[in-house]
Amino acid sequence: MGHSVQHVLVTGGAGFIGSNFVRYLLRRGVPRVTAYDKLTYAGNRASLADVEDHPGFRFIHADICERADVAAALRGCDAVVNFAAETHVDRSLLDADDFLRTNVVGTHVLLEQARRLGVRRFVHVSTDEVYGDVPEGYSRETDPLRPRSPYSASKAAGEMMVLAAVASYGVPAVITRGSNTYGPYQYPEKFIPLMITNALEGRPLPVYGDGRQMRDWIHVEDHCAGIEVALLRGVPGEAYNIGGGHPRENLSVVREILQILGLSEDLIQHVSDRPGHDRRYALATDKLRALGWRPTIDFPRGLRETVEWYRRRRDWWEPLRDAAFAEYYGRNYGGRAVLKGPEHG
Ligand code: NAD
Ligand code: DAU
Predict the structure, then answer these.
(1) 345 exposed, middle or buried (CB, 10 Å; 0-12, 13-18, 19+)?
(2) How confident is the model at residue 12, as a pLDDT?
(3) DSSP state of 319
(4) Which residues are CB-contacts of 261 (< 8 A; sequence separation ≥ 6)?
(5) Is residue 43, in this structure, part of any structural domain at all?
(6) Domain that includes residue 17, residue range
(7) ∠ at Cα 66 (63, 70), nearest 5°?
(8) Ligand 1 centroid to 85 CA: how many Å?
(9) Which phi-psi region, left, alpha or beta, contains residue 91 (left: φ > 0; alpha: ψ -120 to 50)?
(10) DSSP secondary structure string, 181-225?
(11) Lining residues, ligand 1, CB within 6 Å
């Protein structure tokens, strides 16, 4: 099948959505896809194992903040999709330095080199978190950005650099703002894979506060399809929301996971809340739908398949729950009061 882009540089291509996007593009018939990744704690070559032998695939181990590495990687590419980022809100609350470096400076370096080399298309992958807490209604792309965590502030700052590059130099960049994404190859610090893998290990499931916070879940395949549409048909300088349309309270997601696994709700442990925790995100998605995209995977099915995937792929996630993971786990969860539920684990 022909594809109108020929060679895509996927930064953050060894991360959760990036590795799924590499697979997605190759399946869609893009002849050449280069994954570019620093391999931080969240990057994992094993997530690309099934495409390593594909003749159109190449991997570059490098940092998006390094100008010369970015320039070398970009030669011959007609498009860039920037997934590379520090992505975990809880880690940004412990230390935000790397968030500013990668999410802001790294984005700037990529934009500069894309400008210099005349890259034809640039998608900057951002997040619904830039809108901040949305107690009611749905965020539109024209709404003001009101980020409230160091992570979301760094993502909003990255977006500003994108808009500046479009306006100042005509870099053909679009922004996507995706909602909470789930599916295979997600690092087990994030909510859904953490709950699944803790449950599979018989450990308590730490729910922040009352667990009534609302997220709009989207399956990673639907998120990838939305990014492809923005890549092919997005207008430079515009942002596009990519929301799954499956709002759920956290507690009800945990209950669904336990139900699929046939485990008791006694594993649920309410712990003290994330500081500044946004209660709700919700996206209006008509702008991207008008370009021909819509999500296709309903949440109960997507969640069941994801739980099955983690059940089958212990070979992928068990090595990730290593000493460094335990150290992070201790820092993030160790000091939290247990509000309700099992005390130890
Ligand atoms: P992830 O943490 O799984 O992956 C991030 C990847 O970026 C990792 O492979 C990491 O090694 C790499 N990376 C980090 N710093 C780098 C650097 N300086 N240079 C090169 N590579 C670097 O994240 P994810 O969940 O796949 O998110 C991907 C993108 O999508 C991010 O920009 C994130 O903000 C955005 N996003 C994520 C979600 C979600 O729910 N997961 C939703 C909306 C938007
Ligand atoms: O909304 C898009 C964003 O979704 C992305 O931009 C981020 O990169 C991604 O990490 C995600 O951010 P969240 O903060 O929403 O995701 P997280 O998986 O950390 O948490 C989801 C919800 O679950 C949130 O309300 C916090 C809660 N939670 C999370 C963890 C890790 C818990 O209750 N307990 C936990 O242990």
Answers:
(1) middle
(2) 99
(3) G
(4) 196, 199, 200, 307, 311
(5) yes
(6) 7-179+220-243+276-297
(7) 80
(8) 4
(9) alpha
(10) EESTT--TTSHHHHHHHHHHTT--EEEETTS--EEE-EEHHHHHH
(11) 11-12, 14-18, 37-40, 42-43, 63-65, 83-87, 102, 106, 125, 127, 155, 178, 180-181, 187
Q: Is residue 324 part of a domain?
A: no
The residue ranges of DSSP E strands in 243-326, in sequence order, are: 247-249, 268-271
Count of domains observed in the chain: 1
Q: Residue 96: which CATH number?
A: 3.40.50.720
Per-residue pLDDT in tens (0 to 9) along the chain, 345 residues: 468 999 999 999 999 999 999 999 999 999 999 999 999 999 999 999 999 999 999 999 999 999 999 999 999 999 999 999 999 999 999 999 999 999 999 999 999 999 999 999 999 999 999 999 999 999 999 999 999 999 999 999 999 999 999 999 999 999 999 999 999 999 999 999 999 999 999 999 999 999 999 999 999 999 999 999 999 999 999 999 999 999 999 999 999 999 999 999 999 999 999 999 999 999 999 999 999 999 999 999 999 999 999 999 999 999 999 999 999 999 999 999 999 888 755
Instruction: Tell how far CA 306 is from the center of its chain.
Output: 16
Q: Does residue 262 lie within any of the structural domains?
A: no
Domain assignment of residue 288, yes or no: yes
Residue 290 Ramachandran class (φ > 0 left, ψ -120 to 50 alpha, else beta): alpha
Ligand 2 centroid – CA 189 distance (Å): 9
Tokens of 179: 């909602």
